Amino acid sequence: MPHGLPRKLRFAFLMQVAMASLVIVAGTWVAMIVAQQQIAEYALQEEADYFWTQRALDPAQEPPDEARLRGYAVGIGDSAAGVPEALRRLPPGLHQLPDMVVLVDERDDARLYLTYPREEMNQRALQMVLAPVLLALLALAASAWFTYRNAKRMVAPVNWLAGEVGRWDPMDPATSGLAPDRLPQDAGMEARQLAGALQRMGERMRAFVRRERDFTRDASHELRTPLTVIRVASDLLVADPDLPERSRRSLARIQRAGRDMESVIESFLILAREGGIEPQREDFAVRSIVEEEVAKVQPMLAGKPVSLEVVAVAEPVLHASPRVFAVMLRNLLLNACTFTEQGRIELRIENDRVVLRDTGIGMDAGTLQRAFDPFFRARPDEVTGKGMGLSIVRRLGERFGWPVSLDSEPGRGTTAVIHFGDASA
After folding, report:
1. Whether 335 and 251 share a structural domain
2. How far apart are CA 140 and CA 16, in angstroms?
3. Domain for residue 163, yes or no?
4. Closest among 415, 332, 318, 302 to 368, alpha carbons compared
5. What is the C-alpha separation between 421 and 320, in angstroms, rounded?
6. Whether residue 336 sits in one domain with residue 272
7. Quick one: 113 and 41 in the same domain?
8. How many domains does the chain have?
């Protein structure tokens, strides 16, 4: 889950301290090496100068022989048997051996070897840099802590706003919690402006939800009332035994159109409702809806060399709105019948899906990508319609958990699939 702003700040400051500490430690290591080199060169050279000065006054002056500093003096051409073998071949200069630091200094007729333990030299170098390093680390930690506390205090109002908004009910935002007198005392001008904007947005959201509920309630009543009158009146007329056959066929068309209109109105109202309101559901056989919708679109193929077939390899039963499923299927069938001039349209019923294949004009990749966009028509000058059919199909499918997919190729037709595996009864 995403982390809050205070935790991100804490992590950022810890990373900053860690990186700065690494830089200080690396610099300390380099400084210690440089200090060790300078200490060795300065201290040993100073001892060598002192020895040569004393030797000039007293030729019998012995080289230093202390607990740490050891010296060996050999005349040029004399035997170096008293000098350790590791030192005999060293040329004049400063040398870093594994266990000691050696200065070889040659003047006039003699050569001087001065040795100092490397471990002791390292300790002296560490003592020189340790105190400044500790002070730098302490100053860094104090500065980071002070900066973190200030930053945390500055973002606290924003974090508080996030918590208040996070507890909102999307259908009824509690905007009173963002009133100016409810804000933290340390909230700055920016936080107060943000709180005011969020409060106004929440109030508008509540108004939108209220208007949506009112529209859904009023539209449901006002649109269905005249359709109910038409349906009842047409049923009474159909029951008249003296009704001419021609009028009976017209009434049958009116009844089918009324039922289709009821399905469309119900689908639109479902899309207009809030996501938390569960649509009315019932068990229905997919095949019965398929055969009913196929019968409705058959007249569109009159005069076309196109066959429309239903292949049922399963008999799925869904627990949902049969009218919504009919609207989705009808829009897909209307597209198939409209864009297929010859060949075959097959509607295949499987256990977890309905597959509609046609041999129509098909769609290229660009058209297929925008096929579900509202008001999009691939051929606006040639085909009637508003370009809303596939958009409605997709939205209804999302509402009921029936994802719709399209696969198409120009000149080879289109395949539309309604997946309802998770919704089967």
Report:
1. no
2. 10
3. no
4. 415
5. 13
6. no
7. yes
8. 3
Contacts of residue 364, defined as CB under 8 A and 6 or more positions apart, other chains included, come to: 410
Q: What is the pLDDT along the chain (425 residues), one digit of tens a residue?
A: 345 556 676 677 777 777 877 877 777 777 667 766 776 777 788 888 888 888 888 888 888 888 788 888 888 877 878 888 888 888 888 888 888 888 888 887 888 888 888 787 777 767 767 777 778 778 877 877 777 777 777 777 777 787 778 777 777 777 887 887 777 777 777 778 888 888 888 888 888 777 777 776 676 667 777 877 887 888 888 788 888 888 888 887 887 777 767 766 766 676 666 555 556 788 999 999 999 989 888 888 888 999 999 999 999 999 888 888 888 898 899 889 988 999 999 999 999 999 999 999 888 888 888 888 776 666 555 545 545 578 888 888 888 889 999 999 888 899 999 998 654 44
Cα–Cα–Cα angle for 49, 53, 57, rounded to 5 degrees: 165
Cβ contact 271:396 at 8 Å:
yes
The amino acid at 232? V
Contact of 401 with 394, CB cutoff 8 Å? no
- Same domain for 261 and 211: yes
Residues 182 and 226 in one domain: yes
For residue 58, which amino acid is it? D
Q: Kindly state the tokens that stand for 420.
A: 């309802």
Contact (CB, 8 A) for 99 and 134: no
Is 150 a domain residue?
Answer: no
Rounded CA separation 324/404 (Å)? 14
C-alpha span between 162 and 98 (Å, rounded)? 62
242 in a domain, yes or no?
yes
Residue 348 belongs to domain with CATH number: 3.30.565.10
HEC string of 268-285 equals HHHHHCCCCCCCCCEEEE
Is residue 13 a part of any domain in this protein? yes
Q: Are residues 16 and 116 in the same domain?
A: yes
Burial of 10 (0-12, 13-18, 19+ CB in 10 A): middle
Host domain of residue 200: 169-277
Strands (E), 181-288: 282-285
Q: How far is CA 362 from the centre of its chain?
A: 35
Shared domain check, 135 and 17: yes
Which of 262, 277, 292 lies at the terminal end of a domain, its last residue? 277
Q: What is the DSSP string of 309-350?
A: EEEES---EEEE-HHHHHHHHHHHHHHHHHH--SEEEEEEE-
- Neighbouring residues of 51: CB distance < 8 A, sequence distance ≥ 6: 61, 63, 64, 71, 73, 112
* 307 and 408 co-located in one domain: yes
